[in-house]
Design brief:
The complex is a heterodimer of chains A (173) and B (189). Chain A has 173 residues and is an all-alpha fold. Chain A has one domain. Helices cover 79% and strands 0% of the residues of chain A. Chain A contains nine helices and no strands. Chain A starts with a helix and ends with a helix. Helix content of chain B is 78%, strand content 0%. Chain B starts with a helix and ends with a helix. Classes of the chains: A mainly alpha (173), B mainly alpha (189). At the A-B interface, helix 2, helix 3, helix 5, helix 6 and helix 7 of A face helix 1, helix 2, helix 5, helix 6 and helix 7 of B.
């Protein structure tokens, strides 16, 4: 199982290019086109990542993060939930690229393979920038009363965090 | 909202730093974060290009329509009152999100909402189906979390792909619970 997981990127790659060539896609050319989009993406995400890394680094290097973490630790310890992840949970629903900055900082400080690093990745992957999505999707139609949509969506985000916590408590020590 | 958070992090960070005698560190941090971000984005750039290339092949080869065909029967059961076009757009939007095709997913989602509006009985408020669609988007099932893998790789993880399977498991469970909660909540609103 572990070996399959380690080979997963290779499996995905071979599957995609195989499917592409069967469907007679100009795979080499299309790959290059995609890579150009990747360059543009890096260019586009740089300013928000910079803005958020700046903010997060000031917040953590000034020891304010450490101070808040210390205050909150007893409460979070009961849940076995690292308080370091709190900034990520607050920012993720609001800004995709901003949360990338915070995510990177958490990974850099705790290590990508540490318990906190893994939890951050799982939260990052199982939540969505939901306020942005809600604004765009509801903004396009006439209906103005959103009923239970916002509560349910926000609740779903919280569920993702709770399940991540359960998962990590079971799977990682 | 993001304005206030950004302000809070920087302003109170600086004040706390200066008061607690870390003024010099804070000043250095402000300048260092520029260099650091550039280094990070350069490291990330190559990996992101590789993923974008492979995702583009998936997109061009119609992998999205293939996947959306697979989830259509499930979508049909979950939604109560949607026309054929809405079913098509909803499935395509969700699978585009699964593949990480953010740029393709947004226009599809907007079209899905417009189609659902046509069959919405009370035009003043969102229908149950619309709310359910938004919740499914919030659950965000992602088959290949490309940026997360890229960042893990750029920061020296031993096994950057180790999070793929857990993310699929967690977001699937989240989606199921999210749908259940929405189905319960819709009766009260």
């Amino acid at each position: 199982m572990e070996y399959i997981e380690a080979s997963l990127i290779g499996i995905i790659f071979s599957f995609v290019i195989f499917y592409g060539i069967v469907k007679k896609v100009n795979i080499y050319h299309v790959f290059i086109q995609g890579a150009v989009e990747g360059l543009k993406l890096s260019y586009r995400v740089f300013p928000p990542i910079l803005a958020m890394i700046l903010a997060y680094k000031v917040f953590s290097d000034s020891r304010l993060l450490g101070f808040i973490t210390k205050v909150l630790t007893p409460m979070f310890l009961k849940l076995n939930f690292p308080p370091q992840l709190l900034p990520l949970i607050i920012i993720k629903p609001l800004s995709g690229s901003g949360s990338l900055g915070v995510f990177t900082e958490i990974l850099k400080n705790a290590g990508p393979d540490s318990r906190i690093g893994i939890m951050a990745a799982l939260i990052m992957g199982s939540t969505e920038t939901i306020f942005y999505t809600l604004t765009v999707y509801i903004g396009g139609i006439k209906a103005k009363k959103s009923r239970h949509a916002i509560i349910a969506a926000v609740f779903t985000e919280l569920i993702a965090v709770v399940i991540t916590l359960f998962y990590c408590n079971i799977m990682l020590y | 909202m993001i304005n206030y958070i950004w302000f809070f992090l920087i302003f109170f960070g600086i004040i706390f730093g200066i008061v607690s005698g870390n003024g010099e560190i804070v000043s250095n941090t402000i300048l260092d974060s520029g260099t650091y971000s550039v280094k990070l984005v350069i490291e990330l750039c190559g990996i992101l290009c590789i993923w974008s290339g492979i995702i583009k092949i998936a997109e061009e080869s119609g992998l999205n329509s293939f996947l959306s065909g697979l989830i259509k029967p499930v979508i049909k059961r979950l939604f109560k009152n949607i026309n054929k076009k809405a079913l098509e757009y909803i499935s395509l939007n969700l699978t585009a999100n699964m593949l990480g095709l953010g740029n393709a997913a947004t226009p599809l989602g907007i079209k899905a909402m417009e189609e659902m509006e046509k069959t919405n009985k009370n035009k003043e408020e969102l229908s149950d189906d619309m709310a359910l669609f938004l919740v499914l988007n919030a659950a965000a099932i992602q088959l290949i979390p490309t940026t997360i893998i890229s960042i893990r790789a750029a920061l020296g993880s031993k096994l950057p792909s180790a999070v793929i399977v857990p993310i699929i498991i967690i977001s699937s469970i989240t989606a199921v619970i999210g749908v259940l909660i929405t189905k319960i909540l819709e009766k009260f609103f």
